[in-house]
Design goal:
Strand content: over 45%
Shape: elongated
Strand order of the largest sheet: 2-8-4-5-6
Distance between the termini: 30 Å
Length: about 200
């Protein structure tokens, strides 16, 4: 989506750590929108697009690129390891990432990254010395459902959780977030819908 003259670009960065197993329990960062939203004055932001970038600035490389392969371990025949990361934007703090989906109230977008690594198998029994790797991203955003923007009247929360991303264990990772949004005036009817939508499901 091209940036219109009335749009604003908001940038933020959060840091989080993986433990020794590559796990990360549910964690939140906050994007302060107080300069643009005010329920009393019926001022809101229509969030049109959002972008996530994972970075590994202390990963020992010249580029700070996050390792897309979650784990490569010595496995037996027909055994694989699933590594996963989930990131989302919402106006509600869910206690656990397992409760976050595209149908969850107050969730603007969800990005899931999965890495599956396992030994290549010949004759159904003997593993080779090389690994097979599958990396998949699933992006669920509001662009199609809300082409004019998903209206918010409060700060946004950036959520993240991960399992078995062992390639980045014990490292501090950075998540960059960029939003393209348009300041809007919210009607009283729409404001009431926004404030009560948490009780819809």
């Amino acid at each position: 989506m091209a940036k219109n003259s009335g749009d604003v670009i908001l940038r933020d960065r959060m840091q989080f750590d993986f433990d020794g197993s590559g796990d990360r329990t549910t964690l939140y960062g906050r994007i302060d929108l107080s300069a643009y939203v005010n329920p009393v004055e019926r001022s809101g932001l229509a969030v049109k697009q959002m972008f996530f970038q994972l970075r590994s600035p202390n990963g020992g490389t010249n580029t700070g690129i996050f390792d897309p392969v979650g784990a490569i371990v010595s496995l037996g025949p027909e055994v694989s390891t699933l590594s996963s990361i989930k990131m989302w934007l919402s106006t509600r703090a869910y206690e656990n990432a397992v409760d976050v989906g595209i149908a969850s109230p107050d969730v603007l977008c969800v990005w899931e990254r999965n890495s599956v690594a396992g030994n290549t198998v010949y004759d159904g029994a003997t593993p080779s010395t090389s690994a097979s790797i599958l990396i998949r991203d699933h992006w669920y955003g509001p662009e199609d459902l809300h082409p004019s923007g998903y209206t918010v009247v409060s700060d946004l929360l950036v959520g993240i959780a991960a399992e078995k991303w062992a390639s980045e264990f014990d490292k501090t990772i950075e998540l960059d977030v960029v939003l393209i949004a348009e300041p809007v005036k919210v009607t009283t009817e729409r404001m009431n819908e926004i404030l009560s939508q948490a009780q819809d499901l």
